[in-house]
Write a structure and sequence with these properties.
Radius of gyration: 23 Å
Structural class: alpha+beta
Number of helices: 12
Distance between the termini: 74 Å
Strand content: 25-35%
Oligomer: single chain
Shape: globular
Length: about 475
């Protein structure tokens, strides 16, 4: 190896060396995996409160493709380094708040490391097994939007003899055809009402100063939210397209998929499911305490999935619906661009993702019978009206309001998405996700305040909708 190449190799190794994530996680007990985000949250206190972050990343081993999403626009810097072969992806201006669960890789992809290269740069390293290389001319960097990037790897090739290649910068960037950037400037707001086949609405600009004041006051929190008035199409969008760990809000699209299959005759409400050991999950729920082989009616299983957010029940429903890949295909067919299951429940590292816009879009389709029959819609809403956690969006509503919602909480992130029916006859949709210091209860005050601001605005006499116009 030439001295220049060796210098590059040594500097990269010294600047960013992380233990293999597969080994790290595989040696952890389930309890430690659950507690890991608390440690990460504690260690990340020194990071800037408002820094832009790597929201999610995922490596699809079948497609040899790495996908990532960031809070704000980023221009990745990509290069190949030899001995062993590594694809290095730097994200300037992006910080890492917490690790993701490592994926399973093929024999040629040894590991993926993710870490903080310096105070302002997150680095991802895709390391090949020794003896393999990538053709730099075939590595594709695909820009889906300024916040979403994909890195398509060619099939790894075996290195012949003493073959060596110089570090290579990869600068060619492809724009994914047909993609509309998800980050839209305030000067040209996106018409979400038109996306949902509703009357054209406008932004709820009157309450934005109050919302922004609350965000400024709770500086330890980082939020994304989207509210939509179903009657007028008016909306409030504060980083609504920001991707967050979904936590248990992922159970909401699973619920809709379940009732779709009921409508299609693929699932019978009279079925019985058997709890298998590989589906038992820790965290929320009571089914985990029952013996393996216990039989549950499918009605009871889906009820527990929603009302008490039972993780084991969720895994049983996922399996009954055909598995994770099938559900992800369904979500994409609905137009949900941010909602994806990557791991079975409980997903304590937050690899399953969604956004406030996705949740509201799903709820809008549910409300307007776009996905399920009227009967199935009412059954789904009845379950959502009886969820046991009422400390987030419900806490900010006025007397007489009824909410059908699903919350999520994995310590460092909470979320809530629901349909609110007001005494004045108005119906609106709400979704909010908030990153916080681990288990900090202040997030409840923040969400309550946001919920109350929106509710009071829509509860004004002028906002009442006559019965003949509903």
């Amino acid at each position: 190896m030439c001295s220049a190449s060796k210098a590059v190799e040594n500097s990269v190794t010294a600047a960013f060396s992380l233990p293999p994530l597969n080994s790290f996680f595989s040696n952890m007990t389930p309890k430690l995996r659950w507690l890991l985000p608390a440690l990460i949250s504690f260690l990340s206190i020194a990071l800037p409160a408002k820094a832009d972050t790597l929201t999610s990343w995922h490596f699809d081993a079948r497609e040899n493709q790495l996908n990532l999403t960031t809070d704000s626009g980023v221009q990745p810097e990509v290069k190949l380094i030899a001995n062993p072969t590594r694809l290095v992806i730097d994200l300037p201006g992006i910080v890492l708040e917490y690790p993701e669960t490592p994926q399973s890789y093929n024999s040629a992809i040894q590991q993926i490391r993710v870490g903080q290269f310096d105070t302002g740069t997150t680095r991802l390293v895709v390391q090949l097994t020794p003896g393999y290389k990538l053709d730099p001319q075939k590595v594709r960097v695909i820009r889906e939007s300024s916040t979403r990037w994909s890195f398509q790897l060619p099939d790894p090739e075996q290195i012949a003899g003493n073959e060596f290649f110089q570090p290579t910068a990869i600068t060619r960037i492809e724009q994914k055809p047909g993609q509309v950037p998800l980050t839209v400037s305030s000067a040209t707001p996106r018409n979400y009402a038109a996306d949902l086949e509703m009357r054209t609405g406008s932004e709820m600009s009157a309450i934005k100063p109050q919302i922004e004041s609350a965000i400024e006051q709770y500086r330890s929190l980082s939020a994304g939210m989207f509210f939509l008035d179903l009657d007028t199409g008016n909306y409030l969008d504060i980083k609504g397209d920001r991707v967050f760990p979904a936590a248990s809000t992922i159970k909401l699209p699973i619920l809709i998929a379940f009732y779709q299959d009921v409508d299609a005759g693929k699932v019978s409400l009279d079925e019985t499911l058997v709890m298998k050991s590989d589906l038992v999950a820790s965290g929320s729920g009571t089914m985990q305490d029952r013996p393996n082989g216990t039989r549950f009616s499918i009605r009871e299983t889906v009820d527990k999935m929603i009302t008490i957010s039972d993780n084991t029940a969720t895994n049983m429903i996922i399996e009954r619906l055909g598995g994770i890949a099938k559900l992800n295909e369904r979500f994409r067919s609905w137009g949900l661009t941010d909602t994806r299951i990557r791991n079975w429940l409980g997903d304590f590292q937050g690899t399953n993702t969604t956004s406030s816009v996705d949740m509201v879009k799903l709820l809008a389709m549910l409300s307007r019978d776009k996905l399920v029959s009227e009967s199935s819609r009412e059954q789904a809403l009845e379950l959502l009206r009886h969820t046991t956690t009422r400390t987030l969006l419900p806490s900010g509503l006025g007397p007489g309001a009824v909410i059908a919602d699903k919350t999520g909480d994995i310590g460092f992130v909470v979320g809530d998405a629901g349909i609110i029916d007001m005494p004045n006859g108005k119906r609106y949709l709400a979704a909010i996700f908030v990153k916080r210091p681990y288990n900090d209860p202040i997030v409840r005050d923040f969400v309550r305040r946001i919920s109350r601001i929106v509710y009071n605005y829509l509860d004004q006499p002028a906002a009442k909708v006559p019965d003949n116009l509903r």
